[in-house]
C-alpha cells in the first residue's frame, strides 16, 4: 500500500513539476549544443614538451599558496595525456561541438612568435583531428587567462604592446589550425581578465591597481581583439572561411525596486560592466558607452588625476573595433538586484565609478560558489538586452553552469535543475522574444581547476577523481540529462537515468503544491 501511494505521488510529482516548468518548446533543428573547458584548468603537463610558464603557473607555485586548497594546475585533469579518451567521452554525450582554449605559452613558450613549439602544435593538432574524426566541431578560444609569464614581466595587459604580441600569436594559431578550425573566440571574459587580474587581485597576475589597471587592461584587450579580427579578415578569411567572435561575461543587474532610481542604477550597472566590453564591438556607434566616459572623466578630474582614468580610442581605433564580430559569445551564470550607491566604494575605483550596489535576493538558491545564485530568468533578460542594444546579433552561449562542493554526489540534482531551468529560459528567449541564440555550451565538460578556489568546487558534467593519478572521469546524472537534451532537443523534466534515484526537488515541489 505504501508503495502504491509512493508511486502515485511520484506520478503526480512529475506531472506537477512538468506543468510548473515545461514550456513545451523545443530547440530549433539547427541549434547546437556543446561543453567547454580551458587550457590551464584541465591540461596539466605544465612544464612538459617545451611549454613555457604562464601567470597561473607562477601564482600557484608562490608561497604562501594563492588557492584555497594550496593546489596548482600542474596536473589538473591531465587532459594533455588523454586526448583520445576525452574525445570518446564527448562523442558518447553526443555534443555537436567542444569549446577549448589554447595555452599561449605551450605554443609560444616565451610569448613571442619568433619561436613556435612544435610539440605544442602537435598536441592541438591531435585534439582537433580527433574531434573532427568523431564529428565534433572545435570551437577554439585563443586566450583563456594564461598569459605567458614573460609577457607579464613586461607589464601584461595594461601594456599596449600586448596587442601586438596577441595579434602575432593569433596569426600563428590561425595559420596552424585554421584549415580545420572554423569558429574562433579571441578572448574569454575580458572583464575578469582585467578587473580580477589588475584591479582587485582575485585572479592571476593578482595586481591591485584598482583605479587604473582594469581600464588600461580593457583598452588593450579591445584593441587586440579588433586587430586580430581584422587580421583574420585580411589574411585568412578568403582561404579558411571561418568566423571570429569574443566571449563577454555578464551578471544580470535587475532593479531592486520599481523606483526610478533603482531602475537607472541597474541599467547603469549593465552598461558600465557589460557594455564596457560589448559597446565598442557591437554597438552602432562603437567606442565606450557614453555614461562610462562621462562618469570616469568627471570622477578622474575630481580626484585630481591629470587625465581620465578611462583611456581614449582614436577615431581609427573606434572604426577598427566597431563591427569586429561574426557572432556574440556570451558567458552567463547569475544575477544581482541592484540599487544606487553614492558611497565611497574604495574611491577611486571602478565600483565607485559605477555607483551601484548589487545584492542577493534571499529567495535565490545558492551554489557552492559564493557569487553564483540560481536566477534563471537573468539569462533571458540578458539575451533580450543584447537583442535590444546590439541589433539582435547571433548569440552563442559559450558558458553556463553550476558549482557544487568537492564532495558533491554523482547524483547532482541541483545541477540538473539549474540546467533545466536556465535552458527553459533560453527556449523562451528564442520562441517568445525572438532572440537569435544558435548554440549553448555547458560549463564544464568535467570538474577542473577552478582558479583561486582550486579543486574545492566542481562544475563538471563528468566527475574527476583528483586523488587518483589516472584522473578517472565518471558521468554525473547531469551528463546523462544533458545528453538526453542534445538528443531530443527538448528538456524532459521527468528524465532520470535509471542508475540514479529521483531528485529531492521533484518531491519538494509536490509538497509545496499539496
Ligand atoms: C567563467 C570562466 O570562463 C571559467 O574559466 C570558470 O571556471 C567559470 N566561469 C566558473 O567560475
Provide a short characterization of the protein structure.
The protein is an alpha/beta fold. The chain contains 19 helices and 15 strands. The strands form four sheets. The chain has an eight-stranded parallel beta barrel with strand order 1-2-3-4-5-6-10-12, surrounded by six helices.
Question: Could you characterize the architecture of this molecule?
Answer:
This protein has helices at 2-21, 39-42, 55-60, 83-93, 104-107, 118-133, 149-153, 162-177, 190-200, 213-235, 237-240, 260-282, 290-302, 315-321, 350-354, 377-390, 413-431, 477-488, 504-513, and strands at residues 32-36, 97-101, 137-143, 183-188, 243-255, 328-340, 356-359, 365-366, 373-374, 395-399, 404-405, 437-443, 457-458, 462-464, 473-475. Helix 8 runs parallel beside helix 10 (213-235), helix 16 (377-390) runs parallel beside helix 17 and helix 17 (413-431) packs parallel to helix 18 (477-488). It has one domain (30-488): Glycosidases (TIM Barrel, Alpha-Beta Barrel), CATH 3.20.20. It has 514 residues and is an alpha/beta fold. It binds 1-deoxynojirimycin. 1-deoxynojirimycin binds at residues 38, 41, 188-189, 331, 399, 443, 450, 459. Residues 38, 41, 188-189, 331, 399, 443, 450, 459 line the site of 1-deoxynojirimycin.
Amino acid at each position: 500500500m505504501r508503495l502504491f501511494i509512493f508511486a502515485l505521488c511520484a506520478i503526480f510529482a512529475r506531472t506537477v513539476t512538468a506543468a510548473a516548468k515545461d514550456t513545451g518548446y523545443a530547440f530549433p533543428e539547427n541549434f547546437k549544443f556543446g561543453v567547454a573547458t580551458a587550457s590551464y584548468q584541465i591540461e596539466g603537463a605544465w612544464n612538459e614538451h617545451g611549454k613555457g610558464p604562464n601567470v597561473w603557473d607562477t601564482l600557484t607555485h608562490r608561497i604562501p599558496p594563492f588557492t584555497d586548497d594550496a593546489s596548482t594546475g600542474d596536473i589538473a585533469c591531465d587532459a594533455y595525456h588523454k586526448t583520445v579518451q576525452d574525445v570518446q567521452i564527448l562523442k558518447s554525450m553526443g555534443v555537436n561541438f567542444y569549446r577549448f582554449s589554447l595555452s599561449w605559452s605551450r605554443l609560444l613558450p616565451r610569448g613571442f612568435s619568433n619561436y613556435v613549439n612544435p610539440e605544442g602544435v602537435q598536441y592541438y593538432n591531435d585534439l582537433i583531428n580527433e574531434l573532427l574524426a568523431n564529428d565534433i566541431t572545435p570551437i577554439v578560444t585563443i586566450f583563456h587567462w594564461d598569459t605567458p609569464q614573460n609577457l607579464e614581466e613586461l607589464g601584461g595587459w595594461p601594456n599596449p604592446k600586448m596587442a601586438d604580441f596577441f595579434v602575432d600569436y593569433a596569426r600563428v594559431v590561425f595559420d596552424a589550425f585554421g584549415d580545420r578550425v572554423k569558429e574562433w573566440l579571441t578572448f574569454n571574459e575580458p572583464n575578469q581578465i582585467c578587473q580580477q587580474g589588475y584591479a582587485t587581485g582575485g585572479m592571476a597576475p593578482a595586481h591591485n591597481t584598482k583605479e587604473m589597471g582594469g581600464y588600461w587592461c580593457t583598452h588593450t584587450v579591445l584593441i587586440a581583439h579588433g586587430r586580430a579580427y581584422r587580421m583574420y579578415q585580411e589574411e585568412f578569411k578568403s582561404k579558411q572561411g571561418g568566423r571570429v567572435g569574443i566571449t563577454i561575461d555578464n551578471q544580470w543587474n535587475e532593479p531592486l525596486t520599481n523606483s526610478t532610481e533603482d531602475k537607472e542604477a541597474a541599467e547603469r550597472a549593465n552598461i558600465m560592466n557589460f557594455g564596457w566590453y560589448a559597446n565598442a564591438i557591437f554597438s552602432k556607434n562603437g567606442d565606450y558607452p557614453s555614461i562610462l566616459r562621462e562618469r570616469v572623466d568627471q570622477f578622474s578630474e575630481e580626484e585630481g588625476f591629470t587625465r581620465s582614468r578611462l583611456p581614449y580610442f582614436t577615431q581609427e581605433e573606434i572604426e577598427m573595433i566597431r563591427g569586429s564580430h561574426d557572432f556574440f559569445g556570451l558567458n552567463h551564470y547569475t544575477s544581482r538586484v541592484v540599487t544606487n550607491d553614492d558611497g565611497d566604494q574604495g574611491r577611486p575605483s571602478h565600483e565607485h565609478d559605477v555607483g551601484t550596489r548589487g545584492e542577493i535576493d534571499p529567495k535565490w538558491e545558492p551554489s557552492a560558489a559564493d557569487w553564483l545564485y540560481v536566477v534563471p530568468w537573468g539569462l533571458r533578460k540578458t539575451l533580450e538586452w543584447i537583442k535590444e542594444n546590439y541589433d539582435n546579433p547571433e548569440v552563442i552561449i559559450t558558458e553556463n553552469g553550476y558549482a557544487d562542493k568537492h564532495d558533491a554526489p554523482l547524483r547532482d540534482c541541483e545541477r540538473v535543475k539549474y540546467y533545466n531551468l536556465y535552458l527553459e529560459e533560453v527556449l523562451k528567449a528564442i520562441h517568445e522574444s525572438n532572440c537569435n541564440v544558435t548554440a549553448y555550451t555547458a560549463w564544464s565538460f568535467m570538474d577542473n581547476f577552478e582558479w583561486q578556489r582550486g579543486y574545492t568546487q566542481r562544475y563538471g558534467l563528468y566527475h574527476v577523481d583528483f586523488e587518483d593519478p589516472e584522473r578517472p572521469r565518471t558521468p554525473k546524472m547531469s551528463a546523462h540529462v544533458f545528453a538526453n537534451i542534445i538528443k531530443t532537443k527538448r528538456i524532459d523534466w521527468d528524465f532520470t537515468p535509471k542508475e540514479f534515484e529521483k531528485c529531492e526537488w521533484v518531491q519538494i515541489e509536490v509538497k509545496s503544491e499539496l
